[in-house]
Amino acid sequence: MSTARQTPLTCPGHTRPVVHLDFSEVTDFGYFVISACKDGKPMLRQGETGDWVGTFEGHKGAVWGACLNNIATRAATGAADFSAKLWDTITGEELHEFVHKHIVKAVEFSPDSSHLLTGSNEKVLRIFDLERPDAEPEVIEGHGGSIRYACWMKDRDQFITAAEDRTVRVWDSRNNAEIKKLEFDSTLLGMDISQDGSTLVISSGNVVSFWDAQSYEKLKSFALPCPVYSACLHNSKEFFVAGGEDFKLYKMSYSDGSELECYKGHFGPVHCVRFSPDGEIYASGSEDGTLRLWQTTVGKTYGLWKWVDPTEETMNDKEADNILPQVVNAQA
Fold first, then answer.
1. Each residue of 63-103: pLDDT tens digit?
2. Helix, strand, or coil here: 319?
3. CA–CA–CA angle 272, 292, 262 (5° rounding)
């Protein structure tokens, strides 16, 4: 019996490790993905194909965090040059630089794109009003370590942060008060929110855990074979993907944690994984300096993947047993 094999799209262009990525929502022009890289040059790509759209030039140090607003008209980046920058994604123009006192590793737009949340090695959070970018930001203290991730809840006045103090904290954006703290035994490595905003996904050590985003009670957790740096739950909640130290991408059952698929395509640890907004693909960024796009349903015609029917008369038996979706690598 012939089966399709996973053929990832490789998106070249970066010259150093890709440490973070973010998808926009689906827009009138499709959806987009931005990648943060230690080469200091975040890149914007068409999400479905990985085709290069542009590079944001201006940072003078490694870029640790990057995000897009929902409609992909604005991008924000945080870097080792002690700054966060706001960009126009249509023109590539730098709209504003927000100066910090240390390395900025987390950036996140509010749901209405009116504010920008940043987290840095200063161990503090800042909220900038993008309608008054020169105004002093709100400063929020509480973490005891460098802040690595920040997620703004879509439908609630809350945001969530993760730091190297091994805690995840939930904040009320109306008064910036801490309302919940989750503690972990291992160094905190990754955090994400499910697309519907109902489930918090935490990767810590070699464990991926899932938490109710209303009550912040743990729902379940699963151990993987290696330290996990990033994990993301599919919008169907039937499976999740994870990547980490052993260079592999794992697709796991959300119901029981069993391994559904496993792929080794990167040549270095996997730092970040995210599903596209339509759930058809997932992206991974690695120490090897590449961004790769993987099919959620292997063999399906989508983007640059074109399924070749193995029953076609022009294909011999040997070819049919080795069927591969035809694919053209995205170009930088």
1. 999 999 999 999 999 999 999 999 999 999 999 999 999 99
2. helix
3. 75
Contacts of 244 (CB under 8 A, 6+ apart): 189, 203, 206, 224, 226, 227, 228, 229, 230, 269, 270
CA–centroid distance for 206 within its chain: 18
Closest CA to 59 of 86, 34, 33: 86
The model's confidence at residue 277, banded by pLDDT at 50, 70 and 90, is very high
3-state secondary structure of 255: coil
- On whether the CB atoms of residues 103 and 121 are closer than 8 A, the answer is yes
Characterize 105-122 residue by residue with b for buried, 16 or more Cβ atoms within 10 angstroms of its Cβ, and e for exposed.
Answer: bbbbbbbeeebbbbbbbb
Q: What is the pLDDT of residues 102-127, one digit of tens each?
A: 999 999 999 999 999 999 999 999 99
DSSP assignment of 153-186 = -SSSSEEEEEETTTEEEEEETTTTEEEEEEE-SS
- Reduced to 3 states (helix: H, G, I; strand: E, B; else coil), residue 73 is coil
pLDDT tens, position by position, 196-248: 999 999 999 999 999 999 999 999 999 999 999 999 999 999 999 999 999 99
Q: How far, in Å, CA of 271 to CA of 23, rounded?
A: 16
- Integer CA distances (angstroms), 33 to 46, 73, 167, 255, in order: 6, 12, 28, 28
pTM: 0.90
Looking at residue 330, its pLDDT comes to 46
What is the three-class DSSP state of 100?
coil
Query: Helix or strand or coil: residue 240?
Result: strand
What is the DSSP annotation of 142-158?
--SS-EEEEEE-SSSSE
Q: Which residues pair with 197 in a beta bridge?
A: none
